[in-house]
TrEMBL record:
Biological source species: Paenibacillus tritici
Taxonomy, superkingdom: Bacteria
Top-tier EC class: transferase
Protein name (record): Pyrimidine/purine nucleoside phosphorylase
Family annotation (PANTHER family): PYRIMIDINE/PURINE NUCLEOSIDE PHOSPHORYLASE, PYRIMIDINE_PURINE NUCLEOSIDE PHOSPHORYLASE
Database matches in InterPro entries: Ppnp, RmlC-like_jellyroll, RmlC_Cupin_sf
Catalytic activity: adenosine + phosphate = alpha-D-ribose 1-phosphate + adenine; xanthosine + phosphate = alpha-D-ribose 1-phosphate + xanthine; a purine D-ribonucleoside + phosphate = a purine nucleobase + alpha-D-ribose 1-phosphate; inosine + phosphate = alpha-D-ribose 1-phosphate + hypoxanthine
Amino acid sequence: MSQFTGATIQKAANIYYDGKVTSRTVTLENGTKVTLGIMLPGVYEFSTDGPETMEILSGNLKVLLPGTEVWKDINGAETFHVPGNSKFALEVFALTDYCCSYPIV
């Protein structure tokens, strides 16, 4: 989906790693939450409460998903899933545009 309609957007940004990772929270009409954000080059680790689907819209990075030992290269658009109550790592090489979805549980 290239756009959201009928959504509520929080004005305040979610800011991580001294502003190198930012996002805005969008709540869809059905209650689903997504974040739209940008990551600058760097190495990051994130924790999840619930499951997440991370859609890379553009960028150049590697991701280390829970339970794996091999970094996955991403160059351009790609989607990956992260289980709840876990951690994942990212090494970002170029400005990366992303959308993260959090299913209603």
